[in-house]
Structures are given as C-alpha cells and as structure tokens.
Amino acid sequence: MSDASSEPQAAASALTRLPKTYDPTSVEDRIYKMWEDSGAFTADATSTKEPFVISMPPPNATGQLHLGHAVMLALEDIFIRFARMQGKEALWVPGTDHAAIATEAVVIRQIQKEEKMPDPRATLGREEVLRRIADFVMKSQGTIRSQVRKMGSSCDWSRERYTMDPMLNRCVNEVFVKMYNDGLIYRGHRIVNWDPKMKTTVSDDEIERKEEKAPFYTFQYGPFQISTARPETKFGDKYVVMHPDDKRYKKYKHGDTFEAEWMNGPVTATVIKDKAVDPEFGTGVMTITPWHDAVDFEIAERHELDKQQIIDYEGKLLPIAEEFSGMPIEKARPLIVGKLQKKGLLVKTDENYVHAVAVSYRGGGVIEPQIKEQWFVDVHKEVVLWKKKKMSLKQILQEVVRKKEIAIIPERFEKTYFHWIDNLKDWCISRQIWWGHRVPVYYCEVCTSGKTVTTEKTEGRRQKTVGMFVSVKALDRCPACGGSMHQDEDTLDTWFSAALWTWSTLVDPALADDFSLDLPELLKRSPDFQKFHPTSVMETGYDILFFWVARMILMTTYATGQIPFKTIYLHGLIRTRDGKKMSKSHPETMIDPLDIIPKYGADALRLSMIVGQSPGNDSKLYEEKIAGYRNFINKLWNASRFVLMQCEEAGIDPAEVRDTSFETRELSLADRALLYALEELVEDVTKGIEAYRLSEVGERLYGFVWDFFCDWYLELSKGNANHAVLIHALRRILKLLHPYCPFITEELWAHMKPQKSGLLIKESWPAEKKERKDKKSFDDLHHVIDIITAVRSLRAEYGIEPSKLGTVTIVSKKIELLESQRENIMRLGRIDVLTIQEKSLGSTKDLASYFLEKTEVHLHLAGLIDIEKEKTNLSKEKETLSKLIGAIEAKLKNKEFVARAPEEVITGEREKLASYQEKLTKIEERLKNL
RNA sequence: GGGCAAUUAGCUCAGUUGGUUAGAGCGCCACAUUGACAUUGUGGAGGUCACAAGUUCGAAUCUUGUAUUGCCCACCA
Length: 930
Known about the structure:
This protein is elongated. Helix content is 43%, strand content 18%. By secondary structure, the protein is of the alpha+beta class. β8 (216-221) and β9 (224-228) form a beta hairpin. The structure holds one RNA strand.
C-alpha cells in the first residue's frame, strides 16, 4: 500500500481511510438524519404508484423502547424499504398511543409519591389531573420518538399521529354516534369486571387468570349442601340451583321454597332448575350471587331473580353483612367461616382446592365482578350492511377472514381467531378513569331532573333515557329544552380508539372542526385515506391479536366499509436464553435495545432478531447472538474496504463503474460464476421477502456474503481483480441487504454508488437478469473449490505448516478447466509444483490422496507419508461408499421402486451409483498400491 | 376441561408440495499472527431427526398414538 504522505490524490486516498472496523455509533445518527432530510420517508398521496402501507402499532406515548418494539420496527422497516425500492408508494405511519389506564396510573402514583397526596383525583379534580397527565405525556413523548429513530425506522414523520389528536378524537366520536344510532352501542346494567385497585371496569380480554390455592368450604343450606371458596359473597343468597335432570333432587320442583338457617338467621330460599349447573361438581347444588358472578348473573337474568350487591366498589362488605360491614373481604372471610362453624353449618373444608382467580392485566388487583351501568358494544345484533348482507359485528369478523379478504400469517392463528370470536361477548367500552376519550354522551340537567328519568325497554337490554343526547359535537345546551348539560363521566377503553388506527390516522386533520361533514364525507375528502386505505400489512405481536387486531377488523369494516389491512403478520415474543419472558425483575437476562444499539449497532440488533425468528413463534435472544451479527456487519465493511482499496490501487474511480462495464470485457471463471450466483441471489431474496420468509432470506444473504463472496470470490480475485465486477457485485449486495441493515449499506453505498445516483434508500430494487445465468461456470468453479478444499484438507491431515508449499498431482479428465485455474489452485492450495494429468498415478507410494467425483487429488509427501494412516482413511471412505452403493443397488433392484418412482429420481440414483462406483474403484486401486 | 404449537449436533435454530451421505450460526478441538477483516483465516470432531405403530417403492417430512415442554381459551360454584 502506498504511503499516505506520498499520495497526492487526497480524494482517492480518502477511500482507504475507512477505519479497519466499522463503528456504527459514528454513522447511524448521521445517516438517519440524511434520510429524513432527503424526504425519502415521505409518501405522496397524489402519486400514481401502487401504494404499500403499514400502520405502525403505536407505542405508549410515555413508554421506553423495548425489544418488543425493536422487533416490530425491524420487521416493518424491512417490508417498507423493500416495497419502496420496488417502486411502490410506500407509507409507514408512525404514532403513539395515550394508553389510558397505564398512563393515568403512572401519573397518579407519581403525584402520590412526590406530593404526598393520598388521593390526587379527589384533591385535584378532573381538569387538573388531566392537565398534569397531558403535561407528562408531552414531556415524555419525545423519548419514544427518538428511540424509534434509533432503530432506523423509515417511517413518515410528517404523518405522525397521536390517539388523542383532535381528528382522531373526532373519529372516535363519529364512530360512537354511528354505532349508537345503529343500536350497536347500548347502556345497561350488566355484570362487568371491576378492578377495585384502579377503580374502573376492564374488558374480558384485560383480565388474566391465576391459579390459586384456597380453602373450599361446604356448608349446610337447608336440606342441601353447597360449596364455595367465597363465603363472603353469600350473605344475600336465597336461591339454590340444580340441574333439571339431576335425579338426586327430583323431589324438589322448580319454584319450591324452604326455610334455611343462614348467616344472619333464617331465610326463605327458592329452588331453581338450570342447566348451567354441573351435576358432577361438588354436591350438584349451588346458591347464587348474581351481583358478583357472571354465571350467577346469567342464571338470575334467565329466571328474573333478585340481585343484591354484597361488596362495594372499594372491595369492602356492605351493611347486609351486619357485623362484618365495612370490612375488606380478605379479612372478613375467615371470620365469616368461623361464625358459620359456630352455628354448626360448616360441613367440611377442602384445603387443597385450586381455582383460577381473575386478576387485572394492568394493575394486578383481584377482579371483583359487579353489576354496573356501563356502555357496551353489541356484537350480536345483525344490523351491519356488508356486501349487501345484514350481519352482526361477530359475523363480519368471521366473514372477512373466512373469505380470505384478510390473510393471517402464520395461518394457524386463524383457528385461534375463530375460537375467540365464538366466545366473544358484548364488549364493555366504558372506563371510570379520566385519561382517555370521554364518552360523547350528554345529559340535560333540566329534562332529567324536571321529569323523572324514564327508561323504556326497546329491544332486549337497550334502554332509552330521557334527556340523554349522543353527539359528535360537544353540547352545552339541551337540544330539547335548552337546559344546561353535563357530559358522561366515563372514558372509552383504549382499544376503542386504537381499533380505528389504520384509518383515523389517514383522515385529513384539517377537517377536525368541520362539523358540517359526516363520516363518509370526511373519508371522501381525505386524500391519504383515498390513496392509502386499506393498508397492506398489519405487523404486530400475536399477543395482541384479540386486544387490537380483531377489534380493528371489527370497527374499521363497520365504520368505513373497508377492511383495515390485507395481511396480518404476527411475530413472536423475544425471550431470554432460557426461554423465559424478559422481565425487569431479572435484570441480568434483560436485553435493552438502548444498551445494545450503541454497543453493536442497530443493524446487528435487527439481524439478530429477524434471523431465526419465524412468524408466530417465540425466539430467544442473547448477547453472543447479536455479537455474531455485529461480526457479519464488520465483515461486509472490510470486504467493501478491500474492494475500494483495490480500485484505488488500480486508479479506478468506483463512481465511474457502470453496471454493465464488465460485459464487454473478458471474464474469468470466478467472475462468471459470481454473476450467476448474484442473479440467483436476487431471485431468492425477492421471492423470499414477498413470501414473508424473512429469516430464510437473512440467512441466505449472510451465507452469500461471507461464505461465497468473501471466502471464495474475493480470494480468487486477488491478483486478478476485475474491478467492474467487484463493484457491481457489492452494489447488488448492498441493495439486497439494505432492508435488513439500512445503516451500513447506506454508508458503504456512498463510496461506490454510480456517479448520478443518490441515496441507497431511494434506489430501485435489482431485477433478475436471466441472460447472466451461466450455470456451467458456477458448477465448474465449485469443482475447483472442491479441489482446493481437498488439498487443504490433506495438508491439515498431515500437519503441513501453511508456510510450506506442497507438491500436488491432480488426476482428472477436466484438463482444460483445471489448467485455466492453475494459478488459483496453486495459490489457494499453497502448492509450488502442480501436475495436472489424465492418466492415473500407478503405484507411487508416498501420496496422501483425496477422491472427488471424477477427480483425484494427490499430495506428495516424500518421507512424511504414514501408510497405515492413509490406509485407514481410505478404508473408512471405502466402507462408507460400499454402504451407499449397496443401498442404491437394493433400491434399483426393487421392482416397485423402478415402477413407481418418478423418472428423474431413478436417473438420479443411477448417476449417483455410477459416480460412487467409479470413486470406489479408484480407492480400491489406490489401496492395492499402498 | 378444550385447543394450538414445539421436540433435529453441547446451545440457538433451518430443513417450502415425501427422494440430500440431514444443514447453518455459536461453542468445542487442531493449526495459522503484521497480507480487507483476530469482530479473522484453514481444517476437523459432533446427530439411531423425542418414542411407538402405520401409510408408501421410499418418511426428519404424511397419519395415529404415547411422552415431555410451552402457550392460548374456558362459567365449574
């Protein structure tokens, strides 16, 4: 290499100043800014190009980037960059979610702690609490934004949205009103999941069940024995229920009454027969607590039984519990059992009873079912017009997936999806927290207080309330009487607004205050919605298939008449080395992308999460894996550095190399083989990404760059470099690798792009050129590679130092090919005397031999040969071959095989047999000669 | 209780409609040190594809059963 000081061409020498190792920290932020400034992320709604759209699942506005986000961003960025390079109008909409319960909880806790305020909601009031939460969100929103950038996400920041943006809020109200008018939203007293800790209802999907061991008591109740793990709910019990077909209780008729001594003295109880009771369980008889149990509630509804509240919303007993009134349930339970025992009513206690306790997903508090007046989405009512049929929301959910309008990857999740729909009940959408989209319902203080509130049952459970108005626009005055109004206190489930995400983000924000437009009109006047909806791919974790994905399908199809996306790609969870969930309680197993990126680079992190991860399956991540991909990135860096140095030495400016410059020149075997392999690579990568096989494609690229391009092509090109081919190959590689590793490829591209080209992110995806596919060259090169490997293997076997050159004889019929590759074979095999001949070597003894198909490789080892070792090696090989030959012969003798197997399989076997036999003969000859 | 998945080298995983001497990365063993790269190179060892039966000319691959592990769903008081 030339001395830098004697080099006058400062511009050219700059290339070799690429550092020996790639340093992502000095590159990534700068590259990201270049992309952003270039406008490459910004999609054009007026373009005529085919759209390709992804809505980014919005992280919590107050969140921190974690591996779940990282894997999502990496996958989506690959899809988007690939589509963009393919010439599609690629749009990736970023945004953040207000995460109602989670955010409110964080801020409340913070106030409690910092200002020693036990109940901030009571002390500060709604307006002040909301102002503080909004402040907090504003301050922390920037964090997640910059972290999303760190991953290299090429999303369109000019279209960034937040679930609480005015237009998105408007969309929520529009949909609520539409659903109310269609009878799909109703208000009713139903049993809901009450979280006494957060003081709000939560939906069925927001609770999880935890197995818990609890004493299981059996009590005497009149003539019956009933069992329960929750005696504290039993104060008001006055019905016993049994299965109608249970013979043991045949003499009791439905509606019979009897006297029973119970907690607070004698009660009159009624016999109810209902199929919900399992005769096999316990005594087959139970008492019911309709206010605090979903099944009991349904039984009570069926038979129009009385319902009574026993536990308040704080989790304390009500006055019906007499001396236990005001007591928290955990404390009261043993005391109640004690009281019943004293009365002689406790029959037995099973201490080993295990049951599933419902726990709040967020707060972790034990859920207490309660009857409350809440807002619900009716999923059964068949009023939605879809493809000219009236359907329920449930039916729409099934229809679009069954008719393949939406595909789920991996397919098996369709089953899970359908199963979930089958069990879907009406969705409770109101929450008793303040942070969120307030229910757009207004109550007249005059109408409702002037007249008594009358409710009339219309259809089923739906009720109509006088003085209640559901409105998109805020109402100050009662439209009926002009009286002052107040808005419903509740807010909507976070998933209600999230369910609109694919399209509410595309509605023109400028129209947010134009109330002269209805929803269809808003959509019509939004160019983004017109151009970019439905979106192409919804990529997210399988763990929110129900929470979010299904609800988007439900709400979007209903509200816009369009499916929200065509394909659902579900990725798995990233776990620790031991397959456990990464959790903050075990910091040693945690991998924090924010630590990893500075250390290994975003490209390496991306690869380590994508390769080895298949859709729908969890994958494991640990630091060595990431380091491995960091090494790969560095390998690519050095290969490029090498090529650039070669160009520099030859006085060639890579920018002037045109993609076809090599076509007029004489190409070496390796060049022709490389060109073939590159075209194959283009085909595999393109088809692979199109089929969502990202892991496979990643491995393919990794192997190509390292095992073929670096290990063979670059080595072969040394001393005989075809600079045009080198540059062409690297450009191809950079393009194909760009969606996976955007940073390093963009950085290297700057050094070798053609003169007039700009950023790699805007380059077009390579098209496969079939005319360059010279397979024979590729196969020939592989033969040469096999020979070189054979020589190396023989040398290693005999411990010949790499510095010592060897004498080798190759016996082959492919004289012309091998002669043309003489230099390469000698250099890479470390040979100084090479004989290539057609005729066999006869009885020479001091040879170590390696037998390839059609070619023998002999290493001359004057004096060093260990004949016994050689014999053992060859005999081993002979044995293996004999076995293989035996197996194939048996196959070919089998008439059934010859008759039934396809022609090409049979010819294949015959060819294999012939080549094995030839090799065997050679080995036997050689053994005889030793 | 119902459903879904997984089980292939010491570890993490590929293996696309059944036909390969079953592959890769990491780790391991031996050798190599100013040569694009030690974040490296060269060579090597390592697997009865969880088990059993079946379908087939032929099974890691298809069917059934068993075992182990993980996940999801469910109203068993």
